[in-house]
Task: structure prediction
Amino acid sequence: MDADIQEKQPRGIAELVSVVEALVFVSDEPITVKTLADVLEEDRETIEAAVEELKREYDERAGGLQLRELAGGWQLSTRTEFHEEIRRYLKTRPSAKLSLAALETLAVIAYKQPVTVPEILEIRGVQSASAIKTLLDKKLITAKGRKETVGRPMMYGTSKDFLLQFGLKDLSELPSIEDFEDLTQGL
Result:
């Protein structure tokens, strides 16, 4: 056997779980199974098993951290039940401080996407240009092309940053419109 050619030794699941944990920890955004598989030169199924094992370990430990699937990847985060204590410690406000107009516009976009400015106006009943600019600046929404209609208006939808900011795996985790209607009945 040539000394320059080294045979790759198969990794055990324990080693894979450890290296996956290290990569998730150092990644500044949710890391995908595909990226993990590429970096570790392992097949997707093996990496998925390692990720699931790591998630199980964090869940069983019930410590202050959890492994969460967010925006198509995996990320370590603090447990939501400790949110208030962490906020008090950090003495900060939510990073995505938005006006009521921006929040209303974001809600319309999240639930009706892809949606145009005239469609948002029709739903909200007021102009939303400054709210849309704010949401674009904060990278919570993104342009999704032009609608094939008169004037070809720009269509908007939520971004990956939207999923990250609101801690959502995907848009299916948004509360249903019916849940909001139930909340407003009591007001």
